[in-house]
Amino acid sequence: MATPPPIVVTGLGAVTPLGNTLPESWLALIAGRDAAAPFDLFDTSGCRCHQAATAQIPPLPHLPAKLVSRLSRASRLAVPAAREALASAGLLDASGRSRLSHLPISVSTTAGGMRLGENFLRAALAREHSHLFSQVSRYLPQQQVLDLQQIFGFSGHSVIMANACASGANALGHAADMIATGAADCVLAGGFESLAELVFVGFDCLQATSIDFCRPFDLNRNGLLLGEGAAFLILESHEHARHRGATVLAHLTGYGHTTDYFHLTQPEPAGAALVEVMRAAARQAGIEPAQIGYVNAHGTATAVNDGTEARAYTTFLGPAVGPTRISSTKAAIGHTLGAAGAIEALFAIEALRTGELPPQLNLQTPIPEIAPALVGSGEKRDGMDHVMSVNLGFGGSNAALIFSRSAAS
Amino acid sequence: MKTHLAVIGQGAVTPAGVGLDALLHREPASHQVAPLGYPDETWPVLRVDLKDPALVRWQREPRLRRASPLAYFLVEAASQALAGIDPAERATTGLIVAFSAGCLVYSRRFFSGIVSQGQRTASPALFPETVFNTPVSHVAAVLGLNGAAYALVGDETAWIAALKTAAVWLRAGRVKQVLVLGAEEFDPLVLDAYRCARWLRRAASSNGFLTSEGAAGILIREAISGDSRTLTHLHDGFIYRTKPQAAHAATALLQPTDPLLPCYPTARHNWLGPLEKKATGDRPFLKINAPYLGEAFTASAAWQTVRALHTLTPAQPHLLLPIWGLNHQFGLLELEHENKQSSLDNPRPNRFL
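Predict the joint structure of the above. Result:
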C-alpha cells in the first residue's frame, strides 16, 4: 500500500486587529497587547456592548485604485493575508501573481461581505431605487474567493466553509484531507471575517459580548470580544513542497471534527464531542495527549463555553493539564468567527516554531481545573514537537488541528 | 476529479410538491410577489407549500420549533434520501449541505427589525437561526446523523463542492456514506437583488428565471460493481466575473469532454442559456420533459442532478450535467448508469486520515 503524503505548511499570512502581517500580530500578541477598543465602524448606541477588536485595513498599493474601491471589507482583509501567505511560500512571481495557475482554495467565513448586503437591504427597505446589484452580488462569500482568484491569477476547485466559529479549522482540515486523498497537491487554506452590524447586534442581543474585559477561562468571565481579520496557509504535500524547493514551516498531522447536537448555541456540558475531536486529531497525528506542548484554545470567555472547554481539556489531557500549556488568544484579537480557526492555527504554529507562548490575558481568577495550564506572561517552552488549535461553533461544530515539527509518526 | 460514487438514496422538496414524483413530473403553480423596494410591481415566484403534510409533520420536533422554512425543506429531503437505510448506519453517515443564500428569511427579519425598530429590540431567538450551518445542525440532530457535518456556500456550483467534499470524506474513510443536500428558501428581498441583476423573467421567451425555493439531496457511498446511478467525474473551478470570462470558462469546461456524450441542459431559463448552447455546440442534448421548477441555486443543482440520474438507462448510460453557477464559476458532473469499477480509481490509503 502506498504511503500517504505528509502534509506540510509552507506559507503563512495574517491580518489581525494586532497587525497587518503575521510577524506584527505575533510580536504584539507575545508582548501581551490586546486590540480591544471603542467600536466605531457603525453606530452601536442601541447595544449593550460598544467595543470590539477592529483590524486596520492594510493598503493594497499593488492593485489599481478602482479595483480596490470595489472590494468588500472582507476582501480588504483577505487579500493582504493571502498575499503574505503566497509570498512566504515562494508562490508569488515578480508581478504579484501566483506561480501556480491552478490552486485549489479551502476557505471559511460566517458572513462574507455582509456589510454590503446590509446596505442593500437598508436601501430596499427605504425604497431607495439606487441600490445596486454590484453591492449585493459582492456580499456573497464566493465573491471574496473570486477576488482572491482574480487578483492572484489562479483558478481551481474552491470550498467555502460556513460552519460558524469552527469554520476556519474545518477549512484547514479539509485542505489537508484533499491533499491526503490525492484530490490536491497544494491548497490555499484559511479564513476571513469582517465585522458587520447583523453579527455585532446578534451577539449583543444574546448578551454574549463583554462590556468590560474579555476574560477567557476566568471564573468572572462575562462575555466575548468580537474581532475581525484573515489568515491563510499554504498547505501542500511534502513531495510537492520538496519538488519546488519550498521551506517546510510545520506539518499538519491531525484533524478531528464532529458535531455536538446538545443545543444550537451551547456545548454539551461535559464537552464529550470536543474530547472526541481532540482524540481523533491525536490519533491521526500518532501521538499521546501529553506530547502536545501548547493548545490554542477556543476560549470565548462566555459563561457556557469556557467551563465546558476546561472540562474537556481535563478529560483529554488528564495529568498533562499543566505541562501542556493552554491559552485563548481571543482576549487579544477578539473572536474573529469564521477567521478564528485559521488565525489561531497560525498562532499555534508560531508557538511551535519559536517556543514563545501567547499569554492568557485578563486573567484574575482562573477556572481551577485548568489554572495550572494557563500561559503566563513571557512564558517560553522550548522543544515542543506538537501544538493543537481547537474551535467550537454555533450548531455544535467542533474541530481540532494538530501541527507538528515533523510528519506523523 | 475522477471518482465512482453510487447514489443510493434521493429526496426532494419542490414548488411542485414533496417527493421524487413531484420533482420529476408535476407542474408547479406560481404566485405573484412584490420586491421589498418595489411594492407596486409583482413577479411570479414558485413557492413550496409549507402546509404540505410531509412538511407539517416536522413541526412536532422540538428542535425545529423556531426553525426557518429552509430547515423544514432540508429535513424532509434528507428523510426521503435516508429512507430504507438502517438507523444504525446513521452514526457513520456524513452530512454536507450547500447553500447560496442560506437562512435568508430570518436574516432579513432580524436585520429589518434592527433597521425599523432599533438595535435594542433585536431578537435573541432569531439570531441563532440566521447562521448558515444552523439548519444543518437541525437536520443532523433531528435525524440522528452523528458523522461529520459541513455547511458549504457558493453559487450553484457549491453543489459540486459538496459532492467533491463527500468524495474526499469517503476516500479518506471518515464516513461510510454521505448525505449531500442543496437548499434555498425564498424571501422577497431576493427579488430586489435579481431585479437589479436583470435575472428575472419578463416574458415566457426571455432568458430570465422564475425565483424558486426548495431542497434536494442524494445519499452517496463508494460505488461497487453493478451499482446503478453513479457519479464518475466532478469538475469545477471554471471561474468568471465578466461575460467574456464566462464565455471562455464555458468553452474550457466542455472542451476536454467527449463531444459525443449527450448533455443534460440546465441553463435554458437564465442569462447563461445562450452561452450553454454555444459552448455545447453540436453535442447531443437530452430532451427534457420534466416541468420547469424555477431557479433555486443549490437546490436547482440538486434537482437537476436527481432528474438527470433518472434519465440514465441501459440505452442512455452516460451523460454530462453542466452546472452553470450564476456568479462565480461553472462545473460539470458525469453520470453513468452502471458502475463497472470495483472501487474508487487510484485509491490512496491514508495514514493521515
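Chain B touches chain A through 77 residues (CB under 8 Å).
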